[in-house]
């Protein structure tokens, strides 16, 4: 398996497992898939998507064995017997996070200049002031933080600009807020770079604040 490089570490009780890879033939690794996953692999037409799918299953197999990855009605992954997991991918890299106590949202983000062309879709007015919009790395970190919040929100239809809000407490510790109709969710995020990839993960359990009616 020379095409794969693995990295494992623990952050605030969360296990983070990373797998970077070079080009490979996905059909050479179908032994790492469950029967259902083998069928799903064949439904993907693009080689990039097939490689991502295989890489995360290889990482899963290496970490906890051949256990099927299910998805709930919101599209969030889960594995029977594992309390909380989160999956993410960037260019030729995938990640699997596991926490025994609370829900987690992992995001891997490649640093890419194209993020500047979509910043108007996800930056609030306050964030435009707080963050350096000319700094590509900083913009990618904001985007990554909001992707992590999205995974923690528990719903699909979300407005990144007005319902997922970010404040920076320090260089690596950020604070996020998820705005819902009847309550807000506070999230503490750890955000850092590893091998030119931005990694974002919540450092503790989310906190829900219900509004009085």
Describe the structure.
- The chain is an alpha+beta fold and 213 residues long.
- The chain folds into 2 domains: 4-99, Ribosomal Protein L22, Chain A (Alpha-Beta Complex); 107-210, no CATH class.
- 26% of the residues lie in helices and 34% in strands.
- It has 5 helices and 12 strands.
- The strands form 3 sheets. Strands 7, 8, 9, 10, 11 and 12 form a 6-stranded antiparallel beta sheet that branches.
- Strand 1 and strand 2 form a beta hairpin.
- The longest helix is centred in the N-terminal third of the chain and has 18 residues, at 47-64.
- The termini are far apart.
- The model has no long low-confidence stretch (mean pLDDT 95).
Which tags fit this structure?
2 domains; single chain; 213 residues; globular; 5 helices; 26% helix; four-stranded antiparallel sheet; alpha+beta; six-stranded antiparallel sheet; Ribosomal Protein L22, Chain A
């Amino acid at each position: 398996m020379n095409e794969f490089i693995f990295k494992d570490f623990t952050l605030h009780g969360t296990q983070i497992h990373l797998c970077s890879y070079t080009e490979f033939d996905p059909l050479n690794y179908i032994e790492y898939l469950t029967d259902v996953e083998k069928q799903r692999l064949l439904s993907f037409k693009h080689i990039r998507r097939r490689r991502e799918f295989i890489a995360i299953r290889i990482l899963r197999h290496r970490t906890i064995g051949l256990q099927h990855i299910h998805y709930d009605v919101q599209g969030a992954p889960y594995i029977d017997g594992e309390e909380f997991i989160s999956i993410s991918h960037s260019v030729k890299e995938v990640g699997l996070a596991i926490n025994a106590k609370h829900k987690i949202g992992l995001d891997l983000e490649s640093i890419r200049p194209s993020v500047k062309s979509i910043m108007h879709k996800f930056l609030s007015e306050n964030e435009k002031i707080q963050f350096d919009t000319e700094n590509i790395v900083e913009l990618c970190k904001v985007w990554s933080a909001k992707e992590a919040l999205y995974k923690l929100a528990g719903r699909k239809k979300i407005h990144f600009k007005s319902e997922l809000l970010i404040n920076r407490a320090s260089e690596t510790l950020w604070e996020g807020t998820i705005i819902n109709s009847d309550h807000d969710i506070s999230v503490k995020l750890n955000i850092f770079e590893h091998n030119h990839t931005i990694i974002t993960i919540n450092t503790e359990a989310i906190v829900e604040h219900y509004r009085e009616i």
